[in-house]
Write a sequence for this structure.
């Protein structure tokens, strides 16, 4: 339930609240109604008893001897449907209604009580007016029936009320969350390519408007910081290229100097190698800075990947010669994509270098290619230690190194650059698998 949409939870909470309120209302109202009906019935029974006592004392022909049986003609019509048991001053049974049959009400204590008579609940009252004692009762069928009807009505109304309130709560939550939905859609449009996009300001000056204002101000600050960082990275990388080129040229010339001793020439070679690594790093940072700033320029055109793959395989054969790597190739005769050839070579070069660096001695490299659903796919796999599962999510992050390669040279930028270039083409780069057999990266490019 914690992962349900907010509007669904609001509707459900409203329905639960209303159903709980109705249940609480019924729990209070039904006993109150029952008690009120009993009180009204008790008053009617008391009135009936008073009417009988009045008739026995005032009507012409009323019995003079209170110990003699009472004729049924003195019983009021309203009481003839009741259960009646009339006693004399000494407990003599003066009259007993025929509907009582063998039952006896004289055991009921004074007052009004609910007793079971003929397997049904009855209300019985004992009233005295010297010299008579009257036990009068009636069934509670009407009251019990009304209670049953009310319970059935509540049972029927609860699910209907719950559904109606749930749908109403869902609709109200959707209306209330509409500004949030618009804010979410606008926030999804904000990216490195569109950093100027902002959240729409709602018309009402409420809490959501204040939140929108605060977020837009935060986006302004982030855009300025992002633009400043991207500009600094691009400018710094660009400025470093020239001195590095001069330094490389100077080291090349120094290394070719015949006056150097072997030790000096070796030192110059090491310095030259480190300068080349620094140049590569600067070029990578410049490329990433251009991608971040949205200034990465591509020249897509129909490109047959087969010659590009052949050159890559030749390079891999040379790079993996010391490790005695076996290279497998499964490429169709023609595999045309719409891509920038220079950028695709960078992608494949980074993947190929990783396939060699993270391979094992006498291991294998496999390159496959195919066309599917309007896209071109290249899958480059290598043997070696699999990448731990906890590194998969951040494998393409900058300066991220898998747990299997802490001691392997590199800066952790190759996969990030490769994926940025794949995305710039409208394609993708993903880790397809990494197990005891293969670690395979899959490149997808748009078809021509």
């Amino acid at each position: 339930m914690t992962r349900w949409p907010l509007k669904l939870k609001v509707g459900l909470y409203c329905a639960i609240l209303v159903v709980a309120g109705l249940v609480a209302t019924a729990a209070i109202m039904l006993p109150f109604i029952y008690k009120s009906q009993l009180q009204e019935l008790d008053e009617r029974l008391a009135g009936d008893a008073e009417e009988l006592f009045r008739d026995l004392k005032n009507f012409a022909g009323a019995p003079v001897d209170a110990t003699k049986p009472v004729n049924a003609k003195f019983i009021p019509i309203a009481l003839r449907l009741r259960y009646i048991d009339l006693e004399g001053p000494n407990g003599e049974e003066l009259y007993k209604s025929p509907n009582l049959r063998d039952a006896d009400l004289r055991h009921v204590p004074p007052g009004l009580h609910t007793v079971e008579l003929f397997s049904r609940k009855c209300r019985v009252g004992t009233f005295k007016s010297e010299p008579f004692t009257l036990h009068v009762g009636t069934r509670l069928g009407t009251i019990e029936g009304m209670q049953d009807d009310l319970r059935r009505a509540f049972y029927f109304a609860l699910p209907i009320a719950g559904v109606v309130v749930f749908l109403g709560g869902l609709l109200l939550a959707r209306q209330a969350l509409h500004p949030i939905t618009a804010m979410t859609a606008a926030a999804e449009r904000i990216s490195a390519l569109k950093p100027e996009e902002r959240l729409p300001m709602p018309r009402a000056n409420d809490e959501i408007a204040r939140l929108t204002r605060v977020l837009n101000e935060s986006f302004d600050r982030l855009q300025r910081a992002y633009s400043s960082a991207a500009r600094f990275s691009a400018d710094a990388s660009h400025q470093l290229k020239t001195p590095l080129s001069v330094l490389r040229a100077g080291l090349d010339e120094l290394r070719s100097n015949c006056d150097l001793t072997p030790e000096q020439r070796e030192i110059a070679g090491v310095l030259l190698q480190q300068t080349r690594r620094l140049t590569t790093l600067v070029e990578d940072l410049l490329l990433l800075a251009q991608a971040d700033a949205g200034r990465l320029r591509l020249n897509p055109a129909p490109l047959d990947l087969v010659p590009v793959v052949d050159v890559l395989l030749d390079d891999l054969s040379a790079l993996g010669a010391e490790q005695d790597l076996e290279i497998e190739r499964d490429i169709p005769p023609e595999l045309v994509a719409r891509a920038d050839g220079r950028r695709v070579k960078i992608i494949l070069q980074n993947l190929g270098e990783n396939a060699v660096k993270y391979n094992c001695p006498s291991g294998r490299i496999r390159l496959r290619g195919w066309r599917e659903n309007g896209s071109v796919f290249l899958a480059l796999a290598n043997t070696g230690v699999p990448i731990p599962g906890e590194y998969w999510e951040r494998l393409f992050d900058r300066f991220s190194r898998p747990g299997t390669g802490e001691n392997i040279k590199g800066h952790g930028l190759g996969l990030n650059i490769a994926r940025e270039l794949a995305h710039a083409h409208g394609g993708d780069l993903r880790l397809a698998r990494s197990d005891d057999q293969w670690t395979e990266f899959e490149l997808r490019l748009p078809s021509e």
Q: What stands out?
A: Residues 207-292 form a domain with the Helix Hairpins fold (CATH 1.10.287.130). The mean pLDDT is 80.
